[in-house]
Amino acid sequence: MNNLTVVVAGGSSPSGVAAATAFSQAGHRVYTIGSSPDRIKAAAAASTEASGHPVTPLVCDLSDHAAVERLAAEITDDAGGVDGVLHLVGGWRGGTSLLDQSDEDWDFLHRQAVQTLRNTSRAFLPALLASPAGRFVMVGSTIAEHPTAKGANYAAAKAAAEAWTLSVADAFRTSETGSAAAVVLAVKSLVDEAQRAAHPERKFPGYTDVTQLAQAALGLFGEDAADLNGTRRILPAWNA
Hints:
This protein is an alpha/beta fold. Helices cover about 45% and strands about 20% of the residues. It starts with a strand and ends in a 6-residue tail after the last strand.
């Protein structure tokens, strides 16, 4: 589909830059969201340069529901609607055992992985339901299926976020339009060209490249919503 309006939540990250670039290159209008003005402006500029099309940076604390509601209203009014929301807000906190899974790490992961996702999905839900091709996409983790003691906080937070996304899928399923879909794109971890260049000795086994993630998200808009909604897709490794 052409001329979509897509919101990239967590746009300052390498995956955010890759997603904004891919959608902008495909001719879609992109708003990329971050909490740091300097970082999100730099990310949007990188995507604009790479794609040859303007990417709009906006600043918002996505853990603040009221702020996200205002953001959603601003974008919807400006663009005349929203067709896609990509939730790429991340962050890893781990340990060496179950006993050192700290409350501070849990609070961080809950805020980043769960709270930001809950806020964005609720704030943009009416716009996605009104779109002829509404898509809500999150990056899940394979660790949610196979949790480890040293990654218990992270696994629990990602599992909660995935469960919420499946609840969004149910909201889409029971709507009257039937044109929206919520999808989990699961990875072991993500890698980009800068990481590989900085650590040439590492193989990054099982990691998915951020450009693969971006293309997978872009491809979802060309598939039937009924087939997509509520699905969880594990993306391949970059060197598979």
